[in-house]
Design brief:
The structure holds three protein chains of three kinds. Chain A has nine helices and no strands. Chain A is mainly alpha-helical. In chain A, helix 7 runs antiparallel to helix 8. In chain B, helix 13 runs antiparallel to helix 14 and helix 14 runs antiparallel to helix 15. The chains are: A mainly alpha, B mainly alpha, C alpha+beta. The complex binds heme-A (HEA) (2 copies), dinuclear copper ion (CUA) and copper (II) ion. One heme-A binds next to helix 2, helix 3, helix 13 and helix 15 of chain B.
Chain lengths: 324, 526, 381
């Protein structure tokens, strides 16, 4: 690969026309159309009626994924063919960086919502503070604590509950996810998840060192470990969700505690899956295709940044969802 | 890699599969104009219903759908894509880049839009009708009390956000990475600067909007209680999240317009922009402040008084950097050698009317007074002054200004000036009286009103039709220019215009800079 | 501080606005009003003054900025042979036009802050009224220490025929209600504002009160009216289909008239209590129920029970099924839909009547009925 240090001008590779964007659009639109229909069937639909929503969705998503696959394939081929100047690579770096920044803002929204309901709304509903000194009138008997183990609706109780702000029915959890018992810390899944994810960031870094020093074996090994740790995380998260639903009564309907809990951990979990998939693909590229060299392994680098980002989000989650 | 650069391919596939920034810019522009017509048609239905008191044309439920879709389509379908189109056309030409940084993604950002807006418009025909909770879709009206079409709306917003984020990433990467050697940041044309900052705003706030609609989705379908007090949530949480996006959004709309005006006024004053550096800093300050003023849309929700005061002071501060801009434009005209071709007329119209809209904005910022203004036609007047006379006028100016460069043909000046004057009169007739009815107590988003508001509403409707019809003239002028305008070939179409785009041949070749141009250090920014 | 300036501005702007209004004005004083009304409260007046003051400052700045601009437009045009000078950047000027606007803003912020604090001063209220927004009507509940609250709904009175242009529109078209809020003059009244379904906003321009009615939260606002009179306003937050049709009328009366009115209302409430204990015949129930249906249910379920926003009543499985289930829907609503819990809106007599009516109208010939006591028992659980 030539590098930009040479004084001469390197041509910036502007690809020829391409069907990728059009195909990706078709896939994307079909999948959202299908997904919206699935949800509407679920909430408003007639259970006895057959619909084709799932078919549309599945077709859409498969088409979308197939397009993404060939998109990346083309990009990788171009890179291997040496069409990418150092400048183009910098565009990719910038693209990845600002994409991650947008993801940060997405999580920021949910954290913001969490802080808002915990620090302001909860006390207001209980009739405290300048923002809600009269709210006690509506939610008589509601006292606020976090995690919220009794919804205002339940606090009012009985017939009264349905008579006001009739926007759904919310039954709170009976056990919180927070750390409870110092004697059984080893059974507290979030702690294990934290350890797993933090070490995966570390192993990912070792893999990076490996490829930087041209040691493919090291790279493959530690990358594989990283992916496995990611899967372990997802598995434990699934166990935890099961526990939450079955044993703790912590469901999506469990008032704002359930809402924020599942929203934050759910989107995080989804991002872990995406990150692990990305890393897995890099692993396959290396193992099967022998791709990546010490000075050209952007696909891996981008995925590893993403992985570190997902990890940092988890640290905040652990702190604000489980501990504080 | 051979150096085979051919011109555009033929037929539909040229547009569908293109990776060329000019093609993509063109598509954005035509798409946004068609959305402008659609959103404008909805506005005409609104104005026709409001021509007289009583219900004559549409039912209240449908009226609300019109208001909602009008706002959404104008903001997301007309204004934003139009400036993205402009950015696509101009940024590579202005900074000496061969194309956008990520051309295939660029095409994808565009092609997502048409089917998404089709989906959004198709909600009109769904059971229960289109979303009808306003373009601000406050929960729980937009969740528990919404028609099933809200699900389609939510996913549309997700995808629109995706398009905007990719578009912005592309612009950021282009500007940061593709400037020709010697084109330092402080030499970039202001249009590029304003777009760079706009792109930052977009990457920062579109995900927040996505978060807001995701919470809605969960509340509608999965039983969460983000926006329901019964479960410990708060409807006002929605408003905080929405306006955290929404306020920066209005600057997303206006900053590129500022950029356009900053290119055109110097050109027709034949004099450099008075304070380039301060314009850059002012733009950045506006962007920064836009993140800490959101709750000025929510003075009446019952925030604690300390919050109210904070948001009031922060909002008022925005007048300072915006003032810097206005003063700069005026000083640029001062002792220039002015001529008044159509682009300049639209810029002057912008300058006067946007400033008026800014003043009403400042009035709205005063929390105690806003208790009287909020959710009245005074607000409607305010934002049409800044968005129609601001963003749309500057867009018209931009088209007249750069069209000759794009297609190598000159538009008809008389027709252009006629377009301006009819627009100017129609616009003011339509929206100035709305200040009056608003102050007198007419709420917004109502299909019918008390009798004392009749005359001004009639004036407003007549003005709106005049303004709308003037757009037909605009469309005709643009098409006539492209098809049969007088050819121009001078690279510098306007004698006062400065900048890289005026050094390349007219019409601009399909591929602009194969090798980066030399930036003459004497020619700083235009 | 800025008092003199304010007066001057008012003096200067007053005639201008009046001139404008005189030109476009066609009839009476309120018609084609072009400016904010000063209102009938001390706070209203302060807000009005503040509004005029900011408007005045902006006008002055505008005249300055546009003056300079039009001067250049007229005198520095190329066609007149103007040659462009090439000056640019002047730190002094730029600092000036940053600092001066900032100072102007400071001056604006002072009266704004004090007015805002006044608006927020909810203390020492002499009486409380709980205002609840419903789709699409207001409920006023006078909170009484002894627990005997008076409460009633306030609905739009303008007939559909006027709205659909079949009849000529009356003077207070869309701004009239069947039962206005009544408050005493010269009394600090505190409004506790909330919403039952979606967000509404309670706004009476003359009182300068606008506060959102948010389901599940209570917002406070207050007024102290100086002049006896009838003041009209509207819901000011988009709340669905009939957002434009939920006006507010506040009747400010002398203190004597107020206490007379209040005892009248209390007597009415007592009368309803008596009815609760009674048993009615099917015909009585259907007659009363029809009126209740038309007032409270028709908007969603249609004149012939055919449905609309709500499901069809005619032939509905619930209406023609288990009577307790039907009663339950009426009292507790269907959570998560527009079907509200009417148990808090209708008294037991009306609830019994309307359920009975639905079971015996639109071809639902169930022949059974609900008595007020059944409703009472159902609510008790
Ligand atoms: C392009 C879009 C745009 C722009 C640029 C602005 C600009 C501003 N807006 Fe506006 N606004 C909207 C679009 C925009 N707005 C929209 C869409 C809504 C309604 C949304 C909805 O509810 O649907 C709205 C609503 C809105 C509200 C809420 C009203 C309500 O609902 O009750 C407020 C309140 O503070 C406000 C304030 C301002 C201010 C202070 C500015 C400032 O940026 C203006 C600054 C400019 C000037 C002040 C003029 C020039 C300055 C000088 C000449 C210097 C000297 C001047 C002084 C010292 C006074 N706007
Ligand atoms: C940039 C954004 C933008 C633009 C350009 C416009 C353009 C116009 N808007 Fe605006 N408007 C909004 C953004 C915008 N609007 C928003 C955000 C809201 C708030 C929504 C809400 O409350 O939720 C709103 C609300 C709004 C209302 C208040 C509705 C209500 O509260 O119920 C009204 C009423 O007059 C109105 C009128 C108009 C008119 C007459 C135009 C005109 O400028 C349009 C002119 C354009 C055309 C007419 C199309 C082109 C011409 C043709 C297709 C030819 C055919 C023409 C004829 C037959 C005449 N708009
Ligand atoms: Cu109630 Cu609008
Ligand atoms: Cu704003």
């Amino acid at each position: 690969m030539t590098s930009q240090t040479s004084a001469g001008y390197e041509k910036y590779y502007v690809p020829e026309k391409s069907r990728l964007a059009a195909c990706a659009t078709i896939g994307l639109i079909l999948s959202i159309f299908g997904a919206a229909n699935i949800m509407n069937d679920m909430t408003f639909g007639d259970p006895g009626q057959e619909t084709s929503s799932w078919t549309i969705f599945t077709l859409g998503i498969l088409f979308f994924l197939a397009t993404l696959f060939s998109w990346f394939r083309v990009t990788i081929k171009e890179n291997i063919a040496g069409m990418n100047s150092a400048q183009l690579k910098k565009s990719y770096v910038l693209g990845m960086f600002w994409f991650i920044f947008s993801e940060v803002m997405f999580f920021f929204t949910f954290f913001g919502a969490l802080f808002f309901v915990r620090n302001l709304v909860g006390p207001w509903l209980a009739g405290e503070g300048e923002g809600g000194r009269m709210n006690g009138l509506l939610w008589e008997g509601f006292t606020f604590s976090w995690p919220m183990m009794q919804t205002p609706q339940e606090a009012v109780g009985g017939a009264g509950a349905q008579l006001m702000a009739n926007n759904g029915s919310f039954t709170s959890a009976h056990t919180s996810m927070s750390f409870r018992d110092a004697h059984s810390w080893w059974a507290w899944l979030p702690l294990w998840n934290t350890i797993i994810l933090l070490s995966s960031s570390f192993t990912c870094h070792i893999a990076h060192m490996g490829i930087l020093s041209g040691n493919r074996k090291k790279f493959n090994l530690w990358l594989a470990i990283t992916v496995l740790l990611g899967l372990a995380f997802v598995y434990l998260q699934a166990v935890e969700y099961h526990e939450a639903y079955v044993e703790f009564g912590l469901t999506l309907n469990a008032g704002i505690y359930g809402s924020t809990f599942f929203m934050l951990t759910g989107f995080h979990g989804f991002h872990v899956m995406m990150g692990a998939t990305m890393l897995l693909i890099q692993l396959l590229r290396s193992v099967l295709g022998g791709q990546f060299t010490a000075d050209d392994h952007f696909g891996f680098e981008a995925s590893s940044w993403y992985w570190h980002f997902v990890d940092v989000v988890w640290v905040f989650l652990f702190l604000f969802v489980y501990i504080l | 890699m051979g150096d085979h650069h051919h011109g555009p391919a033929k037929g539909l596939s040229r547009w569908l599969f293109t990776t060329n920034h000019k093609d993509i810019g063109t598509m954005y522009l035509w798409f946004s104009f068609s959305m402008f017509m659609l959103g404008g048609t909805f506005a005409m239905i609104i104005r026709a219903e409001l021509f007289q008191p009583g219900l004559q044309l549409v039912e209240p439920a449908f009226f609300n759908q019109m208001t909602t879709l009008h706002g959404l389509i104008m903001v997301f379908g007309a204004i934003m894509p139009s400036f993205v189109g402009l950015a696509n056309w101009l940024i590579p030409m202005m900074i000496g880049a061969p194309d956008m940084a990520l051309p295939r993604m660029n095409n994808w950002s565009f092609w997502i839009l048409p089917p998404t807006f089709l989906l959004l418009a198709s909600t009109l025909f769904m059971e229960g009708g289109a979303p009808a909770a306003g373009w601000t879709f406050y929960a729980p009206l937009s969740t528990t009390y919404a028609a099933p079409s809200v699900t389609f709306f939510i996913f549309s917003v997700h995808v629109l956000g995706l398009s905007s984020i990719m578009g912005s990433i592309n612009i950021i990467a282009t500007v940061m990475n593709m400037r020709a050697p010697g084109m330092t940041y402080m030499k970039m044309p202001l249009f590029v600067w304003t777009w760079l900052i706009t792109a930052f705003l977009l990457v920062a706030v579109m995900p927040v909007l996505a978060g807001a609609v995701t919470m809605m989705l969960m509340d509608v379908h999965f039983g969460t209680s983000f926006f329901s007090a019964a479960g410990g949530g708060d409807p006002v949480l929605f408003q905080h999240v929405f306006w955290f996006f929404g306020h920066p959004e209005v600057y997303i709309i206006i900053l590129p317009a500022f950029g356009v005006v900053s290119q055109i006024i110097p050109a027709f004053s034949r004099k450099p922009l008075f304070g380039y550096d301060s314009m850059v800093y002012a733009t950045a300050s506006i962007a920064f402040l836009s993140f800490i003023v959101w709750a000025h849309h929510m003075y009446t929700v019952g925030m604690p008084v300390a919050g109210e005061l904070f948001f009031m002071y922060a909002t008022m501060l925005i007048a300072v950097p915006t003032g810097v801009k206005v003063f700069n434009w005026v000083t640029t005209m001062w002792r220039g050698s002015l001529s008044f071709e159509t682009p300049m007329l639209f810029c002057i119209g912008f300058l006067v009317l946007f400033t008026i809209g800014g003043f009403t904005g400042l009035m709205l910022a005063i929390a105690p007074s806003d208790f009287q203004y909020h959710d009245t036609y005074f607000v409607v007047a305010h934002f049409h002054y800044v968005m129609v006379a601001g963003a749309v006028f500057s867009m018209s100016a931009a088209i007249y200004f750069w069209l000759p460069k794009w297609c190598g043909r000159m538009y008809n000046e008389t027709m252009g000036k006629t377009h301006f004057w009819i627009s100017f009169i129609g616009f003011n007739l339509a929206f100035f009286p709305q200040h009056f009815v608003g102050l007198a107590g007419m709420p917004r988003r109502i299909p019918d009103y008390a009798l004392q508001f009749t005359d001004f509403n009639m004036m407003s409707s007549i003005g709106a039709f005049i303004y709308g019809l003037s757009q037909v003239l605009f469309l005709y002028n643009v098409i006539a220019t492209i098809v049969a305008g007088k050819p121009v070939s001078d690279p510098k179409v306007w004698d006062g215009a400065e900048g890289l785009e005026w050094t390349i041949p007219t019409p601009a070749p399909y591929h602009t800079f194969e090798t980066p141009p030399k930036i003459d250090p004497a020619h700083a920014h235009s | 501080m800025c008092f003199e300036a304010k007066r001057l501005l008012k003096l200067a702007l007053g005639p201008v606005l009046m001139l404008v209004s005189a030109v476009v004005l066609a009839y009476g004083p309120e018609v084609n009003q072009v400016n904010m009304a000063p209102g009938v409260t001390a706070v209203g007046e302060r807000i009005y003054d503040l509004h005029m003051w900011i408007l005045g400052v902006c006008t002055v700045i505008g005249v300055g900025v546009f003056g300079v601009m039009f001067y250049s437009i007229i005198n520095h045009r190329k066609s007149k042979g103007a040659v462009a000078s090439h000056f640019h950047e002047s730190t002094k000027v730029e600092i000036a036009w940053t600092v001066i606007p900032f100072l102007i803003l400071l001056v604006m912020a002072v009266p704004s802050t004090s007015t805002l604090l006044e608006v927020y001063n909810n203390d020492d209220a002499e009486m409380d009224i709980l205002v609840t927004g419903f789709q699409w009507k207001w409920k006023y509940e006078y909170i009484d220490e002894s627990g005997e609250n008076v409460s009633f709904f306030s609905n739009l009175r303008t007939p559909q025929s006027e709205i659909h242009n079949a009849d000529p529109k009356g003077e207070y078209y869309l701004l009239e209600v069947d039962e206005p809020m009544v408050i005493p003059v010269n009394t600090k009244v505190r409004f506790l504002i909330t919403g039952n379904d979606v967000i509404h906003s309670w706004w009476v321009p003359d009182l300068a009160v606008k506060r959102d009615a948010i389901p599940g939260f209570i917002n406070e606002a207050w007024t102290k009216v100086d002049t006896v009179g009838v003041y009209r306003g509207q819901c000011a937050e988009l709340c669905g289909k009939d957002h434009g049709f939920m006006p507010i009328v506040v009747n400010v009366v002398s203190k004597e008239d107020y206490s007379q009115w209040l005892s009248g209302k209390q007597a009415e409430a007592a009368a309803i209590k008596e009815l609760m204990a009674q048993t009615f015949t099917l015909d009585q129930q259907v007659e009363r129920g029809k009126a209740v249906y038309e007032r409270s249910c028709l908007a969603c379920h249609g004149a012939n029970g055919e449905g609309g926003v709500g499901k069809a009543i005619a032939g509905s499985a619930i209406v023609t099924g288990d009577i307790n289930k039907h009663l339950d829907v009426g009292i507790n609503g269907v959570p998560g839909t527009a079907m509200q819990a009417f148990g808090g809106q209708l008294n037991d007599v009306d609830m019994a009547a309307v359920i009975t009516y639905q079971r015996n109208a639109f071809g639902n010939n169930m022949g059974d009925m609900v008595q007020p006591i059944d409703v009472y028992n159902h609510k008790k659980g």
